[in-house]
């Protein structure tokens, strides 16, 4: 509490000051002033945001909101000028005005100004930055199928703010292979940056899922899966072209097939006149095991149980798809088991083929000398030479 004498002195001073200078004392009419800076906001599209403008000593002046870049007056006091239902202004009946922007859109970004109509006017500015998570634009689905040696181009257009980066990857972290110069040059990468992925001289190993991943730091990151398909004539390879097995044993003929698009795979028998039997079907004697290796390769192993004399001969593993047909042959021949060092319980090796011995017949009377050579030689000769030898031996046997 001031003593009343001091109060009287103040009034006196005021009176004198007005009298002398002709101006009102400062306390009675202070200029409006901002109490804090207008904020800067970074907002995800669709969210709400507000700017806060705090003004003291406003007296008869008004607070207005202006979009600086377009110079559009948005609001004066709490009266909306802009015809934008997403904008509103609130006032706390004291010194605080808030400009609310609901469901923020990309075109709301820019500089906002809180202005007081003094002369000269007083203002402060804040920046609204609108960010948009990435999105992958639906484009016409691109051709992602080619024949081996052809080209494939995948494109992925992404939108977002800031503009997203597009990265390509393969599933299982398999490498992306770029081939140039007629396929002679290869560049192998884990990922590739760019909206368009161009694969030329494609090989079957390029087949599979590719992902385009768009990111701009604003979650969520989005991705799209593409499926690259490479077509080629089937390739068929039997593990062994010559397989020897004793009567009564089980033998497995192994066939490895690569094909795309999907192929019809089967085993056939071929008789002496090159006529092909019907497709072999599973039955108590035959078992066909089909095992997938990858998208375009598989094993198709034929097991013939308890070999009978009529089971020897030529077997054909065949694969046919839209691009063509390929086959590979196995010649299954009989071997005798009563030779030195080849016990009935031991698996036989013939050109790297293996068989499982089972229910072996009792030792034969006739010692098959030629077969003894086969046993020995098959472990050392390449299959081609062995085939030749076998043909000669057969010829010798028939005369
Ligand atoms: C807003 O951003 C501008 C320019 O980037 C900067 O000068 C200003 O200080 C920022 N305001 C606040 C409150 O951070
Ligand atoms: C801003 O964008 C919204 C939504 O896209 C639209 O409705 C509005 O008309 C746009 N406003 C201006 C001033 O362009
Ligand atoms: C067929 O044989 C191959 C080669 O030995 C083997 O890897 C594959 O697992 C076999 N498939 C089946 C179904 O037995």
Structure description:
InterPro entries: Ig-like_dom, Ig-like_dom_sf, Ig-like_fold, Ig/MHC_CS, Ig_I-set, Ig_sub, Ig_sub2, Ig_V-set. Residues 32-129, 134-223, 234-333 form the Ig-like domain. This is Lachesin-like. It comes from Galleria mellonella (Greater wax moth). It holds the Pfam family I-set. By secondary structure, the chain is mostly beta strands. The chain has four domains: 1-28; 31-132, Immunoglobulins (Immunoglobulin-like); 138-232, Immunoglobulin-like (Sandwich); 239-334, Immunoglobulin-like. The protein is built from three helices and 30 strands. The chain has helices at residues 4-21, 369-378, 383-398, and strands at residues 33-34, 41-44, 49-56, 63-67, 72-76, 79-80, 87-91, 96-101, 110-116, 122-137, 145-147, 152-155, 157-161, 165-170, 176-180, 185-189, 192-193, 196-199, 208-215, 222-238, 242-245, 250-253, 255-260, 264-270, 286-292, 297-304, 313-321, 324-334, 349-350, 353-356. Strands 11, 14, 17, 19, 20, 22, 23, 25, 26, 29 and 30 form an eleven-stranded mixed sheet that branches. Strands 2, 4, 5, 6, 9, 10 and 13 form a seven-stranded mixed sheet that branches. It has a four-stranded antiparallel sheet with strand order 1-3-8-7, with no helix packed on it. The protein starts with a helix and ends with a helix. Bound molecules: 2-acetamido-2-deoxy-beta-D-glucopyranose (3 copies). The site of one 2-acetamido-2-deoxy-beta-D-glucopyranose has 6 residues, from strand 25 and strand 26.
């Amino acid at each position: 509490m001031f003593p009343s004498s001091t109060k009287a002195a103040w009034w006196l001073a005021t009176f004198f000051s007005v009298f002398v200078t002709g101006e009102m004392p400062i306390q009675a009419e202070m200029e409006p002033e901002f109490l804090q800076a207008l904020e800067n906001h970074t907002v995800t599209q669709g969210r709400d945001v507000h700017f806060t403008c705090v003004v003291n000593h406003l007296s008869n002046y008004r607070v207005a909101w202006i979009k600086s870049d377009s110079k559009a007056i948005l609001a004066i006091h709490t009266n909306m000028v802009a015809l934008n239902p997403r904008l509103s202004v609130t006032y706390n009946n004291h010194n605080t005005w808030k400009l609310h922007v609901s469901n923020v859109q990309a075109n709301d970004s820019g500089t906002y100004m809180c202005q007081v109509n003094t002369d000269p006017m007083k203002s402060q500015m804040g920046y609204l930055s609108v960010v948009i998570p990435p999105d992958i634009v639906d484009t016409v689905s691109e051709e992602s199928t080619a024949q081996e040696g052809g080209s494939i181009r995948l494109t992925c257009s992404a939108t977002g703010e800031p503009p997203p980066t597009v990265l390509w990857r393969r599933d299982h972290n398999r490498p992306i292979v770029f081939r140039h110069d007629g396929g002679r040059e290869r560049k192998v990468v884990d990922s590739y940056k760019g909206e368009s992925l161009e694969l030329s001289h494609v090989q079957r190993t390029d087949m599979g899922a590719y992902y385009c991943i768009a990111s701009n730091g604003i979650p969520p990151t989005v991705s799209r899966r593409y499926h690259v398909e490479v077509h080629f004539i089937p390739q068929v390879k039997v593990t062994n072209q010559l397989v020897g097995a004793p009567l009564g044993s089980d033998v497995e003929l192994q066939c490895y097939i690569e094909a795309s698009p999907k192929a019809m795979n089967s085993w056939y028998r071929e008789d002496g006149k090159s006529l092909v039997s019907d497709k072999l079907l599973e039955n108590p004697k035959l078992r066909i095991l089909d095992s997938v290796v990858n998208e375009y390769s598989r094993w198709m192993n034929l097991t013939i149980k308890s070999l009978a004399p009529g089971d020897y001969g030529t077997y054909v593993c065949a694969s046919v798809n839209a691009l063509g047909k390929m086959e590979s042959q196995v010649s299954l021949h009989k071997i005798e088991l009563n030779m030195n060092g080849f016990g009935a319980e031991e698996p036989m090796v013939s050109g790297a083929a293996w068989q499982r011995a089972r229910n072996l017949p009792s030792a034969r009377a006739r010692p098959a000398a030629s077969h003894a050579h086969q046993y020995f030689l098959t472990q050392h000769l390449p299959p081609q030479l062995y085939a030749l030898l076998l043909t000669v031996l057969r010829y010798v046997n028939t005369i």
